[in-house]
Amino acid sequence: MNFFDAGSPYLGHPLLTPERTAEEIDVLFGLLADGGQGSDLLPMQVVDIGCGFGRHAIELARRGHSVVGIDPSETMILEAGIDEVGARSSDPADGALRFVQGTAAALDDAVGRASVDLALCLFTTFGQLASRQDSGAASTTDLLRHVRAALKPGGVLVLEVPERARAITLLVETEQLGATTVTRSIEYRDATTILHEHFETPNKTFDLGYQLFSSDELATLVERAGFTVMSLRDSALVPPPPTFMTLLAVVP
Questions:
Q1: Nearest in space to 118 (alpha carbons), one of 250, 246, 252
Q2: Which class is 9-162+214-250 in CATH?
Q3: Global confidence as pTM
Q4: Where are the alpha helices (DSSP H) in the chain?
Q5: Sequence spans of domains, the chain
């Protein structure tokens, strides 16, 4: 089963706490300010691609931004749209908040062209494989194309993904996360490196795979899609894990 289906251990991931989420947004706005994209431009129109159960989208809406969260998983969108979130999204004291089920292509209908200030694609969303046979190449190119069309001139894209060399060197082949056992393996397919994760819970098993990039490959891919790279940090917004890198790019 896909990692984001019903019963997924992702919903109880030990890293994905409200405290971490708030810290990630704090760090993000610090990076935007450092890059001359001041957070004084409020409220912003934000899209969260691969929003999962909505943790970043909800936090940003609570801070007064207008947010659209997009995810292909029905389970995640349903979890994001629980009653508390629905009530909050209609509260005029908070930013507008809505969730859309779909891939990055859903941006074309969910937001206007050149209308978005900030696009997020965090915590390994970029490069995820739709199936074990998927190479990931088409989905990453499509994602960047749709995001590029949605962002305003000066709009910013933020990607957070594993860095290939560290992901391979620091690979933990077996790990116990509560009641879930995780096993990991690396597949070399032509010029592509793929990380596979298999999750065994007491009730179900789930699989997740994503393409790994070097920092140079990621920057080149983003630049070819029409962005200018602002910064490329050798870490997650908020560590751990120690394998992540974070890229910020702007639409010229």
A1: 250
A2: alpha beta
A3: 0.91
A4: 18-34, 55-62, 74-80, 83-89, 107-110, 137-150, 164-169, 215-224
A5: 9-162+214-250
